[in-house]
Amino acid sequence: MTNNDDPLAASRQIASPEAAPAAEPVNSPPEPTGHSLEAALLPARRLKRSKNETESSAERILQFRTKIRDFRPRGLARTRGGRPRNVGGVPIGSAFLLRAEHLDPESAWNQHIPFAFWLMQAHLPSVFVELGTSRGTSYFSFCQAVAALGLPTRCFAVDTWQGDAHTGFYDESVFAHVHACNGPKYAGFSRLVRSSFDEALPHFADGSIDLLHIDGLHTYEACRHDFECWLPKLSRRAIVLFHDTNVRERGFGVFRLWAELAERYPHFEFVHEHGLGVLGVGEAFDAPVRELFAAADDAALTYEVRSTFWRLASAIRTELNLTASGEERARLETRLSATIGEAVKSSEMVDNLAKVGNEPAFQTPAEFAATVQADITRWGPVVKASGFVAED
């Protein structure tokens, strides 16, 4: 989407009956007028455990592992032999093992990417909306899953791309970066909606959004406002994600709203990487998602799920650290090469080399490696043809 485009033109398609009809009516108590937070806190609709409470924790953990990891998502293509399609050799039941393509060392969302992959496959949302995209680490990770799995999901990123008091304010380069990433990879199903969250509301039909990620200004008041305003847009199978549920400084208040909502809705919370809350606002979920919410009521299962995704998150953290180490090594090599170059060109070094009939010819490590390789290429055939063999 260029700067001259109407930022909401594509998303208006959602509001049209031809493009995306609203979800079916929900057989639940009517919502009070105004869609306030109190209206959102309808009587609890927690999902009951289907297993006998007398089962041991070890048995439940084993059953959960099987269900959460080896499920066969509906609606996905299979091979002619009837086997689930692979993505890069990885079974689609293991989508959370896809290699993350949108890591950003400055992002606080990197370690939740494996869960984003898993959720897109387990939930299969028709419409995904993110409120607050910034540089796009989370948003493009969801898009990566859509593309890799061949899902029919339509994705929308809503942001002014100007920043706020918590992320800091930034210039036009951030939107340029996001636009450049979205265009060649995901433009077929993803649109950038450049507006405030409230301005974007009229362009989405009520009951149309299956997955909503709220990651804007993180004060209690702002986050509550966003949830209340977007509540009517959520479908009967909607899930809402809240980032930073485990941050309690700098005026962050998401944890307060999360505590209130978790009393009324099925939910699960990850506590690593500043916290990520998963809220089941709808009531029609597929089995893997139901199992995730049910795990919140069992301490052993909660630990198992958190540990599993934490191990995946640790791998991402390691990758980021290795990348940073490689970049630091390159910087140190550059500095060292510059220092050696200055030393070789000093008058004292030039005079000493001249005394033994030499002159300075400094090369960087990369240039020296290229010289050595060129010599091997040039003289290797000659040495081989001569039959020369080095003695031990």
Strand tally = 11
Order of helices and strands: HHHEEHEHEEEHEHEHEHEEHHHH
Helix content: 40-55%
Q: What fold name stands as the CATH topology of the domain at 12-17 and 35-41 and 57-76 and 85-321?
A: Rossmann fold
- Which regions have little confidence, pLDDT < 50, spanning 5+ residues? 1-51, 71-92
- Briefly note the structural class of the backbone: alpha/beta
Mean pLDDT: 75
What is the H level of CATH, i.e. the homologous superfamily of the domain at 12-17 and 35-41 and 57-76 and 85-321? Vaccinia Virus protein VP39
Outline type = elongated
Task: Specify the CATH class of the domain at 12-17 and 35-41 and 57-76 and 85-321.
Answer: Alpha Beta
- The portion of residues forming beta strands comes to 5-15%
Strand order of the largest sheet: 7-4-3-8-9-11-10
CATH hierarchy: architecture of the domain at 12-17 and 35-41 and 57-76 and 85-321 = 3-Layer(aba) Sandwich
Distance between the termini: 67 Å
**H/I helix tally:** 13
Q: Any idea what the radius of gyration is?
A: 27 Å
Largest sheet: 7 strands, mixed
